[in-house]
Amino acid sequence: MARTIWFLTGNSGKLKEATHHLQPLGYEVRQLIVEEGEIVEPQVESLEEVAQSKITQALLHLSDDQQSQDMILVEDAGLFVDNLNGFPGVYSSYVLDTIGCKGVLRLLEHLQSEDTIQCAQLRSAQFQAVAALWMDGEILYGNGVCPGWIALESSGEDGFGFDPVFTPNDLDAFGEPLPPGTYGEKSVHGKTFGDISLEEKQAYSHRSRALNDLLRQLPSA
Ligand code: IMP
Asked: Fewer CB within a 10 Å sphere, N or C end of the chain?
């Protein structure tokens, strides 16, 4: 029988992505639904600490039977802007809800150049994601990074969060990110995540990379 992985998320897109990665390995991914406000987002220094705290909180929602047989998945991400010392980082949700994409663009207004590569370097940033899986009393962590830069203006209707202001670095023939602003084998041609489809985003996405990193550590079910 397939072992159940309870994914603590309110985001159906994330649920789809995790199912896509984990079902072929023989796991059944189910959404762990808790009432709004029941899971507290801790104000801590790292994404790993956020994920760890959410697993501890999620465990309270599983019965003893479920705790002995099932697994829990949480995933946390953030946008880290180099010239803002990594801000908003673990505060990304709060920053999105308060100053939004517009506010981030305003914070970087003074960092611009006519030269594309120099501009991308000045505005370099990265999405980071941590996928944490609780199994048999232990937590496995997968990490994923998507380097890129903050666009000069918001663009695109697709995606969510900071997608309209984030342009991922192009990739080389092996799928590895190149330096900001340089042209690669796989290219978004300077477009933001908001301008490309979810399928195209998968090749660059921090979340996909974090889940793949986790998968490498997992036994088949
Ligand atoms: P979460 O931990 O995945 O909920 O991410 C925290 C915040 O980071 C979200 O509210 C989004 O603002 C932002 N974020 C995370 N991943 C992405 C992404 O793939 N695109 C755009 N914004 C993202």
From this structure: N
